[in-house]
Amino acid sequence: RGGMANSKYEYVKQYELDDTLLPGCWIVIRIDGKGFTKFSDLHGFEKPNDKRALDLMDECARVMNEFPDIRLAYGESDEYSFVLARNTDMYGRRASKLVSLLVSCFTANYVTRWPAHLPDTPLRATPMFDGRAVCYPLDSNLRDYLAWRQADTHINNQYNTCFWALVKSGKTSSEAQATLRGTQAAFKNELLFRDFGINYAHLPEQFKKGSVVVRQKALVEVKRREDGSPVMRERALPTVLHVDIIRDEFWKANPHLLA
Ligand code: ATP
Ligand code: ATP
Ligand code: MG
Ligand code: MG
Ligand code: MG
Ligand code: MG
Ligand code: MG
Question: Is residue 54 part of a domain?
């Protein structure tokens, strides 16, 4: 391990590329399940939305617990986006470090917590997630990013709810696709209501809006006194909400998120 002996080789370090993310920008890290169309099929996920699998994703998003600089997370389907504070200096803002740590932390939790959410379904494949980091310079860019994801949740859910209702009623998947091709939201709502008695507005908010994870203050037990009584303290705990983040209300009620 001598310094002299090692110096002959140290130049290889210069081949590492700098992937420091721009200073002062919001950092969004989005992870997405690899091949979850197949993965969800293999494990018999309820279609279009298996609540157990969504709850598992939401629980994994509590990786926020381990990374104080994560301000907010937004999840739908097999994906989650994590928003890091503008000024974070976590791992020197190095993209590969941030992405790989979040992906591995999330994936490890996914495997560990799987049996609690799908107790009757053994894991039959290795769940994997890809990840990427994107920088957004303006608050409005970040708001638009999150609005883009939540609008995507709504559009996919509306389509998938119709698609699976048609398939479960006996149509082939190509017939169901043909029925829905090029149709507007109003047509889809009408179809669901008229043919299947489903009122889209009454579906669970988790399916329609996805999951927003923010820290909220809650009383938690930090230790026990000698007499066994709990010592409670206020702590900011990651909390999952299924609320609109496109309109201004949420941001007005949570000004600290963009501060
Ligand atoms: P890729 O590797 O390119 O991401 P993918 O098959 O994962 O491929 P996505 O666009 O990420 O493609 O789509 C996710 C798939 O997983 C969809 O088919 C979706 O229906 C399914 N899926 C994810 N979560 C659930 C869930 N909770 N319940 C039912 N199906 C789900
Ligand atoms: P960083 O987060 O920057 O990687 P680190 O503490 O993980 O910090 P590394 O340079 O990656 O630092 O070093 C890995 C450390 O883990 C070393 O101290 C090494 O001795 C220890 N380690 C790794 N594998 C083993 C092992 N199988 N047995 C004992 N020690 C190990
Ligand atoms: Mg993908
Ligand atoms: Mg995927
Ligand atoms: Mg996806
Ligand atoms: Mg290490
Ligand atoms: Mg090492």
Answer: yes
